[in-house]
Structure formats: structure tokens, C-alpha cells
Amino acid sequence: SIVASAQQRPTFAILTRISNRNQRSTYQNILLGFKMDYPNNWMKISEINLNNNYSNVLFVTPENQFPNLKTLFSTTVEKFALFKQNASNIASKSCTQTAMKMQTTRNIQEIKDLKRNPYVIDYSIMNTILSGFPSKQITFKTSALGGLQKLEISAAHNERLYTLTYIAKPETYQKNIKDIETAIASFQIHK
User: Residues 10-18: what's their mean pLDDT?
Assistant: First the structure.
């Protein structure tokens, strides 16, 4: 159920989800081409769509208190559309390949940055699968900003690059990792 907090203003209410952690809601965006399940006690705090080429959906976990966010989970979708006269499979494959190349280029650059960053304590990179598509997963820990941990997994399909990112302080990273893994496992790209 959704309950308005005591900090209500006539035109704006801060909404908080109160529910059992094991219950799930489904977020679906047909325009972006994905859906995923997430715990009912998470709150979707923003949905940004810039020029239909870049979109981001941001969730926070219950221990977050504005402005001190401790845990963020986001889904980013970037569209790589080529100017094409028709919707041929060749043009579509070319756009998907461009998205996959962009993913690989970003992963290589992030690995280089992680190796050079003196605040990075530990990192790992692995090949995996996201919604049935080949993907890369990068995780790292840093000593900067009071310590942060990050997990990022991305895959390309239908001219789009899908990136799921989890960032948290160490004290909340492990607490929420099972919910994050469940959300990632439920993530479905519409084929």
C-alpha cells in the first residue's frame, strides 16, 4: 500500500511504500523495451527520458533518507539509431552491433580507470548473461567517499544498450545484494 508522509504540501506529497520485503512489484516500460521485478519496499524516485535516445529509471531502497542516499539501483537504456531509409534487418543489426561495440569500449575504459585509480580496493570483470543476451558485469570497491561498492551489468539488443547499476555504501551493499540479484535475474528485454 502507498501512504503519504506527514511532510505533505498541497501540491506535493512524499510517498513511501510500506510492505513486505518479499513481495514484488513489476516495473514495465514498453517504449524502452524492458520489464523487471523489484521489492515492494523500494521506491521509484525518477524516470528520465532525454530525446528518446537516453532513459534512466532510478530506484532507492528503504534505508535511504534524502539527501543522504546510501543505496541506488538504476536501469539505463541508450538507443543507437542510425539514419535509415527502411527498417531492414541489416540496419537493425548494425545499430545493435554499434551498441555492443559501445559497451565493450566503455568496459575497456572502465577497467583502465579502475587499474589507475588509487582509491579502488578491489574489482572484477566477468562475462555473463542478461535477459538471454551476452553481457559484461563489473564490480568494484573504493575507499573514496566513505567507501562505495558498485555492480554494473550491461547488454545490447535491438539498437539499445541496457545497463543495470547498483551503488551502495558497504554497510548496505551486502544487506541488499540478494534483492539486487533477484531484480537482475527478473530483468527481461522485450525481443
Answer: 32
Taking CA 185 as the corner, what is the angle to CA 97 and CA 33, rounded to the nearest 5 degrees?
A: 45
Task: Let me know if 191 is exposed, middle or buried by CB neighbors in 10 A (0-12, 13-18, 19+).
Answer: exposed
The pTM of the full predicted model, rounded to 2 decimals, is 0.75
pLDDT at 95: 64
Contact status, residue 42 vs residue 17, Cβ threshold 8 Å: yes
Dist. CA 138–CA 111, nearest whole Å: 9
Residues 132-156: b if buried by 16+ CB within 10 A, e if exposed? ebebbbbbbbbeeeeebbbbbbbbb
Q: What is the mean pLDDT of the chain?
A: 76
Measured CA to CA, the distance from residue 138 to residue 88 in angstroms comes to: 33
The alpha-carbon radius of gyration of the chain (Å, integer) is: 18
CA distance 30 to 47: 14
Name, in order, each residue with C-beta under 8 angstroms of 83's C-beta and a sequence gap of 6 or more: none
Alpha helices (H) in 5-129, listed in sequence order: 89-116
Tell me the DSSP string of 105-120.
HHHHHHHHHHHH-TTE
Give me the residues paired with residue 54 across strands.
50, 78
